[in-house]
Specification:
This protein is 74% helix and 2% strand. The protein has a single domain, classed as Growth Hormone, Chain: A (Up-down Bundle), CATH 1.20.1250. The protein is globular, with a radius of gyration of 21 Å. The protein contains 17 helices and 2 strands. InterPro entries: Atg22-like (IPR024671), ATG22/LtaA_families (IPR050495), MFS_dom (IPR020846), MFS_trans_sf (IPR036259). Pfam families: ATG22.
Length: 454
């Protein structure tokens, strides 16, 4: 059964159920990966490295499998490693998903496993950074695996003309849910004395709450979404896993027949790496480089979250009028301006920091939501899981080259300013490949119907 076979009311009900997983998993990406994990990991690793004050920028090193890594760069290297591992694993997961009629259960299984490991971050305290290093990698990989099925379901429940609206609403819903939990957690962290907690305990409880939120709200789409039989899969011999590997190799060979799809994947790899690194490094940059206290960072982070809710909806309307392709391109140009301005922000200038936060919020949700829906138009029917697995290797929370460059530049310069500016290269390369893309040709080559506005 395809989306066109469903009654419009049935489609709408499933689309609303689908949006709940954005609400669920955003807690992990917002509270843990974007805000609390990196500064807390730097503090914990800094104690192990022997920094005088682990709350300050620490360039002393810890030993990771024989490598001496700066405590201030450690969380960025961990994220990079998680995505490198995902690049090998997710395409096989995607091929498996394409051959299964149980997409929603694959989504839920990976989500619940990922939330379990994320909950173990509660055990990271003192100078025991090792457990945090292991579980953040595992939870990030499993979160990426869950998104493969989640994104593939989008094609089952929406027509080509509905994709931008459904995807934008999902991202907006995710930012609203992630922002709500973040608000509660930051109140607890900032007012930890009021609640009779140490700062470390308040952070650990916040990390745990995000894991519980992720697991709990995943129940809603599981109950309300339907499973559907696979369609148009590649014929391969052997068992399910053998056929999944076979389909992966076949797709990699056949991607030459879809040059526009490949061009967009390359563009997305670059500009999304830049976006994810800006998001991931924002709290660290604000606290360690610009010397803002918790209150300013909290206000700015929450501002970004709730502005991003409106930004995602705004870009959805922009796409309805001008098309998702052009809207994405305009968003990438806006990110270039943001990175340049961020590099020159003076220390402790709250007004300018908030202005940059508003700008990030406007383009953040929009570029991500429209990238997801636009890519769905470039995928041959029946190959959604596998193609979205390739796409998701560069998705939020699994950016690798950007975080690696950010961490490396900091280690070489002992400053986060050149590290943040270095990210402009990713947006320049993303725009370069987007400008080489013919969206109408790509949609037609994939065998999909071209929407009224591309």
């Amino acid at each position: 059964m395809t989306a066109l076979d469903l009654d419009p009311q049935d489609r709408t009900r499933e689309q609303h159920a689908w949006n709940w997983y954005d609400w669920a998993n955003s807690a992990f990406y917002t509270t843990i990966l974007t805000v609390l994990f990196a500064p807390y990991m730097i503090s914990v690793a800094g104690k192990a490295a022997g920094c005088v004050d682990a709350d300050d920028t620490c360039s002393k090193t810890v030993d990771v499998l024989g490598l001496h890594l700066a405590a201030g760069s450690l969380p960025f290297y961990l994220t990079s490693f998680a995505t490198i591992a995902s690049a090998f694993l997710l395409p096989v997961v995607g091929a498996f998903v394409d051959r299964s009629g149980r997409k929603k259960w694959h989504m839920a299984g990976f989500a619940w496993a990922g939330s379990f490991f994320a909950g173990l971050l509660f055990l990271m305290k003192g100078d025991n950074w090792q457990i945090g290093a292991v579980v953040i990698v595992l939870s990030s990989i499993l979160g990426g695996c869950s998104l493969v099925s989640y994104y593939a379901i989008l094609v089952d429940i929406s027509t080509e003309d509905e994709r931008d609206h459904v995807s934008s609403r999902g991202w907006a819903f995710g930012y609203l849910g992630g922002g709500l939990l973040l608000l509660l957690n930051l109140v607890m962290v900032l007012g930890h004395d009021t609640f009779g907690l140490s700062k470390g305990m308040s952070v650990r409880l916040s990390l745990l709450s995000a894991a519980v939120w992720w697991a709990g709200f995943t129940i809603i789409p599981v109950l309300r979404l339907r499973n559907r039989a696979p369609q148009g899969v590649v014929r391969e011999d052997g068992g399910l896993f053998a056929r999944s590997f076979g389909q992966l190799f076949t797709t990699l060979k056949e991607m030459r027949a879809f040059p526009m799809t490949l061009t967009f994947l390359v563009a997305y790899l670059f500009y999304n790496d830049g976006i994810q690194t800006v998001i991931y490094a924002a709290s660290t940059y604000g606290s360690k480089q610009l010397k803002f206290g918790d209150s300013v960072l909290i206000a700015t982070i929450l501002l970004i979250q709730f502005v991003a809710f409106g930004g995602a909806l705004f870009f959805g309307r922009l796409a309805a009028r001008y098309g998702s392709y052009r809207s994405i391109l305009w968003g990438v140009f806006a990110w270039m301006v943001i990175v340049v301005v961020a590099m020159f922000l003076p220390e402790k200038n709250v007004a300018l920091f908030l202005v940059v936060g508003v700008a990030i919020g406007i383009v953040l949700g929009g570029t991500q939501a429209l990238s997801r829906s636009f890519f769905s138009l470039l995928i041959p029917r029946g190959r959604e899981g596998e193609y979205f697995a390739l796409y998701n290797a560069a998705e939020r929370g699994t950016s690798w080259f950007g975080t690696f460059v950010f961490g490396l530049v900091f280690q070489l310069t002992d400053s986060y300013r050149p590290a943040i500016f270095a990210l402009i290269v990713f947006f320049l390369l993303g725009a370069f490949f987007l400008l080489r893309l013919d969206p109408r040709r790509g949609i037609e080559e994939a065998g999909n119907r071209v929407p009224a506005v591309v």
